[in-house]
Design goal:
alpha/beta, about 400 residues, Aspartate Aminotransferase, domain 2, 15 helices, binds pyridoxal-5'-phosphate, seven-stranded mixed sheet
């Protein structure tokens, strides 16, 4: 039984006030709050169990290595990967996608080769591909979303041509909450022999993910949205693709042997992990994912579906609010503008005065902003600890903002 009151008690920050009001944290799409178990694990790691990993033979180094490495298995379970060797640690999705761009795509793609993207990608899944456009003449092909903000898998497959070498697509839009049928895209792309990279930054936070069932080649996640530490994360890379990749960063840990004349690489995943990593961050991420699996991702998803339905109904009642995207199966993420003069920044400032944290701006999705003909929006993004009372608080604060600006 999903008891949101009990769950809220796991997150100490939710008990605080902001501007004299109880905190209503609706900025989970940007970064989520941390449960006490994660904070405790990180404190313990620093205060009792800290040393550098992999290279030491002493007790603390072995202990830190054991805890750090155990997160690989936790991520593998969380994503239902076939093996923990398919998990490469990263500092987040941004690094994961840059890794694929640099280590897999750059050496393979020729001028005129194409990468298919949707218009609702986060900049983390756009800019690394623009680098390839600038540096080696790769062509970016954009697939539009429909009037509801849905991405038709068929439209993505139709964009694949003989020169397409990769499809890079989000599993859930960080602006619209749209959930993309990535399994359908992967099925069709596989028939055409084109690999698929899935940006799982948002989706993995809100629903069970099974990379084997999806059938993708790369699946990137970011720890700080998964109720874990900032600077933690991972990317699942299918073995077949790993075998095609050159290393990413050069340094300690990723080599087998270095001489004056030659270098040889360690086996994956170490081949893609150079230097001292975010040891304590990854330990914290393992604990966060265990916490999520303890709650049950299907139950988290069901709770957030009910919040979404309630919020959708309440926001529909505000006829001066324009909510971007209305996908039937979307997650509990609502981006909106207000009719009249109110800028997204002004709205968010008024909400903040009431203790309500939302995001305002372009949400690192400028091509999508352009698609909607807006320069900024406010975004309320819900997480596993939010309540219907917090939806009500959001709606009354929006009414207040509208009264002020109307
Ligand atoms: N992709 C999506 C859909 C996101 O929402 C975000 C974060 O906002 C990212 C990628 C980038 O994640 P990070 O900044 O943690 O690397």
């Amino acid at each position: 039984m999903y008891d949101v009151r009990k769950i809220r008690a796991d997150f100490p920050i939710l008990a605080r006030e902001v501007n004299g009001k109880p905190l209503v944290y609706l900025d989970n799409g940007a970064s989520a709050q941390k449960p006490q178990v994660v904070i405790d694990a990180m404190t313990r790691a620093y205060s009792q169990e800290y040393a550098n990993v992999h290279r030491g033979l002493h007790y603390l180094s072995n202990l830190a290595t054991e805890h750090y490495e155990s997160t690989r298995g936790v991520i593998a379970r969380f994503l239902n990967a076939g093996s923990e060797e398919e998990i490469v640690f990263t500092t987040g999705t941004t690094e994961g996608i840059n890794l694929v761009s640099y280590a897999w795509a750059a050496p393979r793609l020729q001028p005129g080769d194409e990468i298919v993207l949707s218009i609702m990608e986060h900049h983390a899944n756009i800019v690394p591909w623009h680098f390839l456009r600038e540096r080696q003449g790769v062509v970016l092909k954009w697939v539009e979303v429909d009037a509801n903000g849905d991405l038709d898998p068929q439209a993505v497959l139709e964009a694949i041509g003989p020169k397409t070498k990769l499809v890079a697509v989000t599993h859930m839009s960080n602006v619209l909450g749209t959930v993309v049928d990535v399994a359908a895209i992967c099925r069709g792309a596989r028939e055409k022999g084109v690999p698929v990279l899935v940006d799982g930054s948002q989706a993995a936070v809100h629903m069970p993910v099974d990379v084997q069932a999806i059938g993708c080649d790369f699946y990137a996640i970011t720890g700080h949205k998964l109720y874990g530490p900032s600077g933690s994360g991972g990317i699942w890379i299918a073995r077949e693709r790993q075998a095609e990749m050159r290393p990413f960063l050069g340094g300690g840990d990723m080599i087998r042997e270095v001489t004056r004349e030659t270098i040889t690489w360690a086996d994956p995943p170490m081949k893609f992990e150079a230097g001292t990593p975010g040891i304590v961050q990854q330990i914290g991420l393992g604990v966060a994912l265990d916490y999520l699996m303890g709650l049950g991702m299907a139950d988290v998803a069901a709770h957030e579906r009910s919040l979404r339905d309630y919020a959708r109904d309440r926001l529909k009642g505000l006829n001066w609010l324009n909510v971007q995207g209305n996908s039937a199966g979307k997650g509990a993420i609502f981006s909106f503008t207000m009719e009249g003069a109110a800028h997204a920044h002004d709205i968010s400032t008024i909400l903040d005065k009431r203790g309500i944290a939302v995001r305002a701006g372009t949400h690192c999705a400028m091509p999508l902003m352009e698609h909607y003909g807006i320069t900024a929006s406010c975004r309320a993004s819900f997480g596993l600890y939010n309540t219907v009372e917090e939806v009500d608080a959001l709606v009354s604060a929006l009414e207040l903002a509208h009264d002020l600006f109307a």
